[in-house]
Fold this sequence. Notes:
26% of the residues lie in helices and 27% in strands. Strands 1-2-3-17-7-20-5-4 form an eight-stranded mixed beta sheet, with helices on one face. A four-stranded antiparallel beta sheet has the order 6-18-9-16. The protein has helices spanning 30-48, 61-71, 138-144, 147-156, 172-176, 181-190, 236-246, 265-277; strands at 9-13, 21-24, 50-54, 86-88, 91-93, 103-106, 116-125, 129-130, 135-137, 158-164, 194-197, 203-209, 212-214, 221-223, 253-257, 279-280, 289-293, 297-301, 304-305, 309-317. Helix 1 (30-48) packs across helix 2. It starts with 8 loop residues before the first strand and ends in a 15-residue tail after the last strand. It folds into two domains: 9-138 and 282-316, Clavaminate synthase-like (Double-stranded beta-helix, 4-Layer Sandwich), CATH 3.60.130.10; 140-273, Clavaminate synthase-like (Double-stranded beta-helix, 4-Layer Sandwich). It has 332 residues and is an alpha+beta fold. A hairpin with a 6-residue loop joins strand 13 and strand 14 (221-223). One of its GO terms (molecular function) is 2-oxoglutarate-dependent dioxygenase activity.
Amino acid sequence: xxxxxxxxxxxxxxxxxxxxxxxxxxxxxxxxxxxxxxxxxxxxxxxxxxxxxxxxxxxxxxxxxxxxxxxxxxxxxxxxxxxxxxxxxxxxxxxxxxxxxxxxxxxxxxxxxxxxxxxxxxxxxxxxxxxxxxxxxxxxxxxxxxxxxxxxxxxxxxxxxxxxxxxxxxxxxxxxxxxxxxxxxxxxxxxxxxxxxxxxxxxxxxxxxxxxxxxxxxxxxxxxxxxxxxxxxxxxxxxxxxxxxxxxxxxxxxxxxxxxxxxxxxxxxxxxxxxxxxxxxxxxxxxxxxxxxxxxxxxxxxxxxxxxxxxxxxxxxxxxxxxxxxxxxxxx
Length: 332
């Protein structure tokens, strides 16, 4: 199925190893352009999973926010795994993550009951080297994973365990929008999150989710989770340090099979290898706009040198209950 491309746009460039790239004619009004072409852009992303728009020359946060608002219904982030700068309501910086570390491919907030359906990125300042936002097609990843591993995750789901320690990752206030215990507990109860307050005032949470879902619009089966990104074996050297500091039960993040069984380094390696074989990349240029279907397409971030300013908006909340989850959520 194809969708009409507005006559003011150049043809979409579809090349192996790269996301679809649409070069647009220079415009002095990116906001008006986004409003005029919203339907065509979203239709293309619905078919292909992502689209990098080059030529809009986005200049600042105010203009970017206005473009974002033309393209989707912006969400307030909850349950963030890392802190962000907030530019405006629903408009954030990319996650604060060490620039020398690769951020594994994942689906944003896949552990939420209402994750974003569409992610919008805008690059205001491109890094001097690296810093790409790689993307991977989720149905292809699912088909390439070992069938027995997929079957196990479909049967038991995956478990995310978090320890909010005030040092690494988002704080309780950043994640839940409040640090009042009653408000945090109310959120956890409402969102199927099991929790336990620690003697030192920290918070530990558990949430069990489906690892495979169906896209709410297309019905495609998608590998949808953050199993490999937030696991203790994502970075073995970092794990050794964190275990020394916090102990094995106090790691800021960890993932397990949904029945609580550990996920070994071998499983993480298999998932990462499949992601890499199905990943597309393109260097950012300042002014770029990138639309990513968050259910269909996983994304990550490469290490980089120099300054890098990428703005993010999470839009169009999807209810996981509408995605044919393979397990019943538990927690809270």
